[in-house]
Amino acid sequence: MKIHALTLSILMSNAALAIDVEHTTTPIVIDGVAESAWDKTTWQPMPYLMDGSLPNSDKDFKGRYKLLWDENTLYLQADITDDVLIDTHPDPTEKYWDDDALEIFIDSDASGGNHQFNHTAFAYHIGLDNQAADFGSDKKPHLYTEHLVSNWKRNTVAPYNITWEVAIKLYPNDYQEGAKNTPLKLTAKQVIGFMLAYCDNDGSKVREHFMGSHEVQPVNGDRNRGFIDADVFGKITLLSRK
Ligand SMILES: [Ca+2]
Ligand SMILES: [Ca+2]
Ligand SMILES: [Ca+2]
Ligand SMILES: [Ca+2]
To answer: Count of domains in the chain?
Structure first.
């Protein structure tokens, strides 16, 4: 019976991962404070270990998130519990994955495939300084902070969780490095590749926990595939306008 219950819970969690995203008629203010427009959406979990060790969810790390959309923007609210906030690399393009970072994976047309050194998909590593880094076509890290607006606030009461809001613009598959690129208009029924993760370091030399919203199948034991392969992202569907 125990195995059946476990199997059922895995099936249910995977079914819940095909996420429908509600439209918002009110733009979200990116200030790290959740406004009432968020109330109509449900929380999605981030329970999957992709690298490092599994954290204690009481205070070391726990995360969940919500999504909304309008014509120009995909909105994300993450609710993050993390006992130690750390940013030991002041250069936002240096080892950003070893600082605390919210990592948003976006594949605007769900094309999938290898995106490590191209922009058919993005892996935005947003540091505590709200800068967003990813690899460019020259195989070096670059900032793509202009693609989004990010802001977070830490709650003043235990467990001192963080409300982290991000407004993201989406770009087409033919995004050109260093050129003027026009963000996509979002439309109802659009299907987008999406995954969310958090890099948690609390003082170690390297990242301690890398937790994500989707279960990644390991390749040679490695589940840290999202920054390379958009096939491991989940999918979200934009619901009709209100
Ligand atoms: Ca807000
Ligand atoms: Ca932690
Ligand atoms: Ca794509
Ligand atoms: Ca941390």
So the answer is: 1
